[in-house]
Amino acid sequence: MEIKQHLVVHPSKAIIGTKSKLLKGKTVVLCICGSVAAVKSPEIARELMRNGADVHAVMSREAMRIIHPHLMEWATGNPVVTRLTGKVEHIALCEGADLVIVAPATANTISKIAHGICDTAVTIIVSTALGRKIPVIIAPAMHESLYKNPFVSENVEKLKKSGIVVVEPEIEGGRAKIASTSRIVGAIINLFTPRSLEGRKVLITAGPTREHMDDVKFLSTPSSGKMGIALAEECAAAGADVTLVLGPTFISPPQGVRVVNVISCEEMMRAVLSLLEERYDIIFLSAAPPDFTFSERQRGKISSDLEELNVRLVKSPRIISEVRKHAPDSIIVGFKAEFGVSAEELVERAYRRLLENDLDFIVANDVSRTDIGFCSDFNEVYIVDRRRNVLHIPRSSKREVAREIIRAVLGERHGS
């Protein structure tokens, strides 16, 4: 009986690209050291894969005392390198690698890398990568006292000066905890982001605002600020000098971005107009403040014993209508959210808003959908320009949408 051979793809690889294609075609070598933070390594690997990467794990002997290689083989869908053999794994892996990351990186391994010592699978692969000019990232994890040891600090600085990217740990409770998975993956995405905005200044508004009725209750929108924060992250990674005017949100802004925090729409307006005393090349108005605010704010807390309460709402300050007066030479990109309308009507309303406010581009989406928009990690938008050219960006991660918006603004993507 003839037995046919089939190429079997590991089931774990089914998640590749399910979140974004930002790392599509990239091969990442994930080196794991003997820190208790090694328990985070499967999560890091899986998130890299969800963003499109093919991940290969390398483990030191001490790392195998924390987690088993079988776990990393399951996580990545690839065999795990734990020692070097006649297959010269350090050469084979680095020949196809786009990036090497050490996460977690212990004080011991950091110091060995800094001094060119190659006595583990991890250190020899990093040394090989450096010799081949392959980008290297490290994410330290150790006790705080170790991280602040002057010799360890000196070695970390030495790695930075050599071009290695260090994703700084989070100092908490006497520990230098490994950076969050989102920060680590974000650093990798940033490394592969084209530097298309080098030398440009960008201003972004993001998030909701809170229009207070009293000191406790307020009117707001469901905006999380994720779209504007994704724009800030993408612009910064592309080389821009970014200022982010951010309303109240639980989402942390990216590092390396100047952040101006505001609460109300009036505060956001004042902040934007003050910032526009400087010149910005591109302005993204992605904030989603309420259209109305209270005519007056009560001090303290309005009693819950009241049976009835009448309040008067007035129009909120219209930031979008004021910006062109103060930034005549800037590229201004507005955002328009609609609820439950057809694509044609969405584009038509967005284009009218563009004309009314003398914008260069406007980005429109339908917030009636639960799989995109407010609070979601995904969006689907229509980008409209002054000539009414329309570019449709299908459902994608907000970081991918941000990249496509920037490409459209720079003339790298064209609508029809």
TrEMBL record:
It catalyses: N-[(R)-4-phosphopantothenoyl]-L-cysteine + H(+) = (R)-4'-phosphopantetheine + CO2; (R)-4'-phosphopantothenate + L-cysteine + CTP = N-[(R)-4-phosphopantothenoyl]-L-cysteine + CMP + diphosphate + H(+). Residues 197-409 form the DNA/pantothenate metabolism flavoprotein C-terminal domain. Its cofactor is FMN; Mg(2+). Keywords: Decarboxylase, Flavoprotein, FMN, Ligase, Lyase, Magnesium, Metal-binding, Multifunctional enzyme. Binds 1 FMN per subunit. Its EC number is 4.1.1.36, 6.3.2.5. Catalyzes two sequential steps in the biosynthesis of coenzyme A. In the first step cysteine is conjugated to 4'-phosphopantothenate to form 4-phosphopantothenoylcysteine. In the second step the latter compound is decarboxylated to form 4'-phosphopantotheine. In the C-terminal section; belongs to the PPC synthetase family. In the N-terminal section; belongs to the HFCD (homo-oligomeric flavin containing Cys decarboxylase) superfamily. HAMAP family: CoaBC. This is Coenzyme A biosynthesis bifunctional protein CoaBC. It comes from Candidatus Methanodesulfokora washburnensis.
